[in-house]
Amino acid sequence: MAAGPPASGTGPVHVGRPGELPPLCSQVRLFLTLVCAAVAAVLYILLCSHSPVQRCCSAPALRDSPATSGVRSFQGYSRVPDGKTLERALCRQCAIVSSSGQMLGSQLGQAIDGQECVLRMNHAPTAGYEQDVGARSTIRVVSHTSVPLLLGNQPYFFQQSQETLYFIWGPAKKMNREKMGSTYQALVKVMEKYPQLQIYTLTEEKMTYCDDVFQNETGKNRMKSGSFLSTGWFTMILAMELCEQICVFGMVSDSYCREKNHSSVPYHYFEKGRLDECRMYLMHEQARRAGHRFITEKAIFSRWAKRRNIVFNHPSWAGRRNI
């Protein structure tokens, strides 16, 4: 029986090759594919934006990366007691762990320990705080004023942590090798007791360089303005030399303490009940002499973050191009 004409209101019938879909079906399938892709992209963005750790800090580094395999020499860091210049490979990913009370309850220990290199400051402990700050210490940057605190707990800092590299900074009168400054003498004695330790001091040239960086960024002479650089300053400069990516944990922005609803936390996570963090920052920022310019330094770090691969976590905040 011959086929009749199409029913009223229908268009011409498409007859294609076997297995070929009509144009309308192909268009519907393409539309549904695009919709699914769009939904997946939106879900990915929403999930990642609520992650407590930003993307560059979420996965462990590839320790055998070609970019990090070559040993390099870093001028300005002199080994105790032989004076040899620091030589090591770059770290692909670094965690700088703040000593701030912001770290309490953060549950970031695993994310921190997942970085290739972990940098800590002064005598900040890990024992008892592992869930929040992690357990590993690749590098510890220490002020000359904190050296006695390390000496008072040698089994913890030196006997158990022999894989840690120590970087000690301080004024020439304390750190001088030839004249055997008091801090340098103490470090030599520690090396005699623990010969496997790796302790480096910042040279006078490196200390001057760090002062010059501060003046270039602020327009103020550090000494004439009554400013003392913080251990965080030296840690950030060291990290920018050693690390390809820097993830900072527990450091607030320069504007944080001006926010009405900012949280009140201890200045140090391991010294509960002591002075509030923001009060300490504001007190030092306003000091006419011998003040750490914590807030100014954080504003500078914010600017550096736009030029370097630096990410701030807990609290998370973005760097800015201008202070």
From TrEMBL:
Record carries keyword NADP: no
Known pathway: Glycolipid biosynthesis; Protein modification; protein glycosylation
Catalytic reaction equation(s): a ganglioside GM1b (d18:1(4E)) + CMP-N-acetyl-beta-neuraminate = a ganglioside GD1alpha (d18:1(4E)) + CMP + H(+); 3-O-[alpha-Neu5Ac-(2->3)-beta-D-Gal-(1->3)-alpha-D-GalNAc]-L-Thr-[protein] + CMP-N-acetyl-beta-neuraminate = a 3-O-{alpha-Neu5Ac-(2->3)-beta-D-Gal-(1->3)-[alpha-Neu5Ac-(2->6)]-alpha-D-GalNAc}-L-threonyl-[protein] + CMP + H(+); 3-O-[alpha-Neu5Ac-(2->3)-beta-D-Gal-(1->3)-alpha-D-GalNAc]-L-Ser-[protein] + CMP-N-acetyl-beta-neuraminate = a 3-O-{alpha-Neu5Ac-(2->3)-beta-D-Gal-(1->3)-[alpha-Neu5Ac-(2->6)]-alpha-D-GalNAc}-L-seryl-[protein] + CMP + H(+)
GO biological process, one term: oligosaccharide metabolic process
GO CC field: Golgi membrane
Membrane-topology descriptor: Single-pass type II membrane protein
GO MF annotations, alphabetized: alpha-N-acetylgalactosaminide alpha-2,6-sialyltransferase activity; alpha-N-acetylneuraminyl-2,3-beta-galactosyl-1,3-N-acetyl-galactosaminide 6-alpha-sialyltransferase activity
Protein name listed in UniProt: alpha-N-acetylneuraminyl-2,3-beta-galactosyl-1,3-N-acetylgalactosaminide6-alpha-sialyltransferase
Source organism per UniProt: Geospiza fortis
Lineage of origin: Eukaryota, Metazoa, Chordata, Craniata, Vertebrata
